[in-house]
Amino acid sequence: MLTLDAQAQEFSYLNRFLFPISDTTKYQAKYYQQSFENQDSLVAGIYTLDHSIYSKKTVCFDEEKEETLSKTFLYDSLGNVKSYREKDFVLAYEFEIGFYPNGIVKSRRVSKSGEEEKVEFFDEKGNPTAPPAALEGVMPTPYGGMVGWNNYLAENLEFPLKALYRRKGGTVYIYFWLDKEGNIVNPEIMNPEQVYPSLAEEALRVVRDYPHQWTPAQKDGENISIAMRTPIRFETPKR
């Protein structure tokens, strides 16, 4: 991470999973983030390497530095606002607005204390419309369900001795594709610089060596490939 201003401003590169990276010769940067923090707020913008805006988030704090309000804009590849999300931590409400490329509101959702209170949809002229038809889908499941997956991890995940000796723990996030037959394809580490190297290697190994097929994802009765991500946790033993 490069510090542009010792007091408040920071710059960092991000990989395609939006995790920070500092060694851009080893890991490929896809975005960069600039953030500015003062006494009562933080503003962070994420941009592509050709300087197109991807997202902008503002977080407000109270005197105890607790979050009180957050506002997040997401943009499409042309720089148009794709969605806006606001969350009030004091009043426990949240709303999200989706937009068409022409700027017309596409959808509006309001929730209170985690419960959805109102959902509205609109056509490209701004007229109220029915919710989009839901596609019949089935999410993938590992052999034996999540119990079987967790048992496999518990029985096969080994805590690397070097990391254990140095009391290095943490969570490795693994991204992979499940093909139409339920095979794990091309697993990769999402947060390589946030975890100890041997932990990342072991997490990747245990996912890559999974001996079973998953029940594949389906949409409208047809098997489909789907991207997945899973956390692999290493907890250091208590002294």
From TrEMBL:
Domain TonB C-terminal: 156-235
An individual GO BP term: transmembrane transport
GO function terms (MF aspect): energy transducer activity
Cellular component GO terms, alphabetical: plasma membrane protein complex
InterPro entries the UniProt entry points to: TonB-dependent_transducer, TonB_C
Protein name listed in UniProt: TonB C-terminal domain-containing protein
